[in-house]
Structures are given as structure tokens and as C-alpha cells.
Amino acid sequence: MFRPLLIAALVASPLPAFAQTQAAAADQQAETGQPPKRVRSVTLTGDQKCPQSTADEVVVCGRDDEPFRIPKGLRDDRPIAAQNQSWVNRAAVADRIGRTAAGLPDTCSPVGSGGQTGCSLTWNREFAAQRRADAAAERAVPGGEE
After folding, report:
1. Which sequence spans correspond to the domains of the chain?
2. Closest Cα to residue 59, out of 36, 25, 32?
3. Which region is the signal sequence (predicted)?
4. What span, in angstroms and rounded, lies between the C-alpha atoms of 119 and 103?
5. Of the candidates 77, 76, 51, 47, which has an alpha carbon nearest to the alpha carbon of residue 64?
6. 3-class state of residue 77 by DSSP
7. Which of 74, 83, 111, 139 has its CA 20 to 30 A from that of 103?
8. Can you list the alpha helix ranges (DSSP code H) found in 2-86?
């Protein structure tokens, strides 16, 4: 009988003291001018609330509802111009075009001895891309077909 009362008293007693200690620690940190020991970045979704900062850590919260900083009206969805692309993308395009023009294997080119082997690969890729697009379109429309 005595043990549950003792446990309840021990659990309940530090809560008000902890809140006072936390405020005192924040004041002490502000007085010393020392940076916090830890900075934690938290991404919130929905109606989550930002956790409280303590004297030892600063909590920086951000919402994931709008992950882009550029407003939707100002975003550009057009393809990136060639002069603005990275050299990796430029080299990949040049390699793909060069392989097709030379009729190398797996290119589906009418020129060269190995060009015909890539046609089935190309058709399979196109088929898979079409199926993914169809599945995405079905998920976008509630209830399947209109």
C-alpha cells in the first residue's frame, strides 16, 4: 500500500520543478551568450506541434505541407534548356545520340549490325512507361474511370 503512494509522489514531484529548471536554464544560457549544445531540425506534417526548446538544444520546426519555397504560380515546369543543364546530362545525351547514330548494340537503329537488338528493349521500356502513366492516371481520378 505504501509503495504505490511513494512511486506516485516521486513521479509527480519533479514536473513543476522541471518546468522552473527549464526556464532558469534558458535564462542562464541567454545571460552567458554561449551557443546551445545541440540544434535539432524537425519537419512537421499535418497539425503536429513543434516540440519545446530546452537550454541545451534549439528546436527549429518547418512544415512539409509546402515543400517548395517557390510559389506554385511562379514554378517553371518546362524542360531545362541545354545550356542550363549539368555536364553530366549533356554527356549522357551526347552518348545516347552517338550510340544511336553509330548503330551500336541495343540502340534500335536501322544502321549497323547490332542496332536491331535494342528495338525490343525500347518497346518494353515504352510499354512499362505507359503502364505507369495509366496507373498514375487511375490513382489521380477518384473511383477509377469516369
Report:
1. 34-62, 104-146
2. 36
3. 1-19
4. 12
5. 47
6. coil
7. 83
8. 2-12, 14-32
Q: Is the CB of residue 42 less than 8 Å from the CB of residue 62?
A: yes
The whole-angstrom separation of Cα 96 and Cα 21 is 65
Q: Strands of 25-89 (E only): list them.
A: 38-44, 57-63
pLDDT at 33 over 60: yes
The whole-angstrom separation of Cα 94 and Cα 97 is 5
Cα separation, 144 vs 146, whole angstroms: 7
Distance CA 127, CA 130 (A): 5
Question: For cell 548494340, what's the residue?
Answer: 105
Can you tell me whether residue 8 is helix, strand or coil? Answer: helix
C-alpha cell at 83: 545550356
The answer, as to whether pTM is greater than 0.70, is: no
Is 83:75 a contact under the CB 8 Å cutoff?
Answer: no
User: DSSP assignment, residue 114?
Assistant: S
Q: What whole-number distance in Å separates Cα of residue 97 and Cα of residue 99?
A: 5
Q: Pick the more confident residue, 20 or 71.
A: 71
The C-alpha cell at 32 is: 552567458
Pairing assessment for the beta strands 38-44 and 57-63 based on DSSP bridges: parallel
